Amino acid sequence: MIFTEGEREYLAEHPLGRLGTIGPDGGPQIHPVAFRLNADGTIDIGGPALARSQKFGNVRADPRVSFAVDDQAATPNALGQTGRGIEIRGAAETVGGETIRIHARRIIAWNIGEFGPLPPGREPHLQGYNSRDVSP
Q1: Cα separation of 51 and 48, whole Å?
Q2: pTM
Q3: Which of 16, 29, 61, 67 has most Cβ atoms within 10 angstroms of its Cβ?
């Protein structure tokens, strides 16, 4: 499974994210978007006239993307932090003329789910941080 249960729950509860694509000049472009998490772990982004958007053209020209969903919790965690979220880095494709589908390669999550024991050598403020590769 690509996402942990806690990450799946978090994404299901937060339907707005930010899609980072690479623009025609090679610079980053960030776009707020609504999304859907699919059962296979891919993420679909759609919207009105998406095929005519800059982000759609950017994905067709360069599939590398970053997608972030984050917020602030109403109550601080055990470390006093309220910021939490997930960044998904990967490759996107255009599907069906009006959808961008993201395939995760790396997932970076912070303060999602319960804290486990602090691994040796990890700074205490990074206890809720999880970064992992999920595909080649």
Answers
A1: 8
A2: 0.91
A3: 67
